Amino acid sequence: MSRRYDSRTTIFSPEGRLYQVEYAMEAIGNAGSAIGILAKDGVVLVGEKKVTSKLLQTSSSMEKMYKIDDHVACAVAGIMSDANILINTARVQAQRYTFMYQEPMPVEQLVQSLCDTKQGYTQFGGLRPFGVSFLFAGWDKNHGFQLYMSDPSGNYGGWKAAAVGANNQAAQSILKQDYKDDATREEVVQLAIKVLSKTMDSTSLTAEKLELAEVYLTPSGSVKYHVHSPDSLTKLLVKHGVTQPAAETS
């Protein structure tokens, strides 16, 4: 029992726990899942769109994937309004760094600066933690392709494959079994789709319930962030045997 140690963000319980931060993590456990996987030639992010009603107009903008800078993108799980604030903060920080030093901001430095902001919201009274987890995918000249996961506490870590949101434990265990260090981007896309189809709540995986983005290097050496269109997603799902091809109408 929390015994009212959860009445403030700043109060430690006798067991050394911050209940409000734990509750924020619990909120993310109910959100649509997001999965990130590192390949030898890129990073793949995949997210589950929660379609709550047939009457909902599916927006043309992305719900789970966001571009932060030319070399960094992120997938989001949790409260979207909280995520928007942090994404805008990250974009401004990345642009400030580029303006000051005339080069892209190292990925880990960007993640760390955003996590410092998150941490501040767990330490001062009258504030609540951001109810959002991020998967950051990026490339820089220091460490190549990188994947980071951060949570409301402000902790972050580098991962080869990670999952946040609903059923993340089941997704992590499948990733642990099936992940290979030298996998190509194509193999990683297949693995991401497989994991999402096995762990998401709805019975069938379709292009409307899915967002897929990749970060990779072009032949010229520049970093490219590519989001798959619904048509491209449908082809991928058919190719990997997740959905049946649509019947031809005469």
From TrEMBL:
It comes from Capsella rubella. CDD domains: proteasome_alpha_type_4 (cd03752). GO terms for cellular component: cytoplasm; nucleus; proteasome core complex, alpha-subunit complex. The proteasome is a multicatalytic proteinase complex which is characterized by its ability to cleave peptides with Arg, Phe, Tyr, Leu, and Glu adjacent to the leaving group at neutral or slightly basic pH. The proteasome has an ATP-dependent proteolytic activity. Keywords: Cytoplasm, Nucleus, Proteasome. NCBIfam families: PRK03996.1 (NF003075). Component of the 20S core complex of the 26S proteasome. The 26S proteasome is composed of a core protease (CP), known as the 20S proteasome, capped at one or both ends by the 19S regulatory particle (RP/PA700). The 20S proteasome core is composed of 28 subunits that are arranged in four stacked rings, resulting in a barrel-shaped structure. The two end rings are each formed by seven alpha subunits, and the two central rings are each formed by seven beta subunits. The catalytic chamber with the active sites is on the inside of the barrel. Residues 5-27 form the Proteasome alpha-type subunits domain. GO terms for biological process: ubiquitin-dependent protein catabolic process. It is found in: Cytoplasm; Nucleus. Belongs to the peptidase T1A family. This is Proteasome subunit alpha type. Its main location: cytoplasm.
